[in-house]
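Reading a protein record of the kind used here takes only a little practice. These numbers are not coordinates but entries in a learned vocabulary of local backbone shapes. Here is one such record, which you should read through line by line.
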Amino acid sequence: MENLALIDSFSEFKDDKQIDRVTLMAILEDVFRNALKKKYGSDDNFDIIVNPDKGDLEIWRNRIVVADGEVEDPNEEISLTAARKIEPDFEIGEDVSEEVKLIDLGRRSILALRQNLISKIHEHDNTIVYKQFKDLEGEIYTAEVHHIRHRAVILLDDEGNEIILPKEKQIPSDFFRKGDNVRGIIETVDLKGNKPAIIMSRANPIFLEKLFEQEIPEVFDGLITVKKVVRIPGEKAKVAVDSYDDRIDPVGACVGMKGSRIHGIVRELGNENIDVINYTTNLNLYITRALSPAKVTSIKIDEEKKRAEVILRPEEVSKAIGRGGHNIRLAGQLTGYEIDVLREGAEEDVELSEFSDEIEGWIIEEFKKIGLDTAKSVLEHDINDLVKRTDLEEETILDVINILKEEFEE
């Protein structure tokens, strides 16, 4: 049969794409059967023999011999005269197998056929890549920076697969150059059309959890369990750890001597401050630990409302709240409880919500975001500090302070 470029390329496809023989044969047969259907209306009576190792392919059409002038379906029937041109001893009712040359399909059909073959090969590749990365969702992966765009960094792995690291999935302090190796987790893998869209994240809490598995042998071996991770990417994180072996100190093992073990993780996350705490089912103790480094005096818990009222010495309040309210926010996320901070001796204090007739609700919420939910807690802070830590104008804060002062002057 004619050694056309299409046939020559079969082995090429097999070598370049690393497609196994059975898969390649199935793709080739599917492509050729589609071409035969277009030309002859049906492919039911065709046999296709593919040999991808040799770059060889044969197509045979099977027809029944009928009397001259009685051919109703030229694709499935052949006249006796035409059959005897193939083999002189054919008789009516016998089966005739005739080889179909690729050239008989026509030049246009051959070009379309080749394009279809390339398309099917790419589709197969994309399916393989999709399945490969779908199995890697939630796992750490490393790829190289190929292109930096305004809203995303485009990465390529060693196989040339494209991975997208969107801006919102990066740590705020991340800065990349072309050629840099980047670690993150494969967060999602979807098929967009026929092409897999692979999204990496460095901001997902799972990334921190997986870094613990990678960097701390006891976590990798299962001797220490990471119970929960919460984080504000690049700023602060809290990790609750536990061990079923009483001989192991989970926090000590994770942090290491003078922070030696956790240092690499902190550096990977752009110096994110990581608090590692011992997990416990004792809710009072768990909330107390979650608020570290602040020292809690006492706790009152409302399990039904999922709220905890925490009493602290005045000097411990700012530690509990943390810069930008990060500490108290993460403590709430870690424990699943909304935490209200109160100062010791603040029994005569008044909840900010009591001033809702004079102070708009959204203003009260701004103060609550940074852990200030009582009148005295606001009055104890410097005005400039309140301007920096809230989204409120200085004039608004002064109005609030005047209203609160009137309460205690009365």
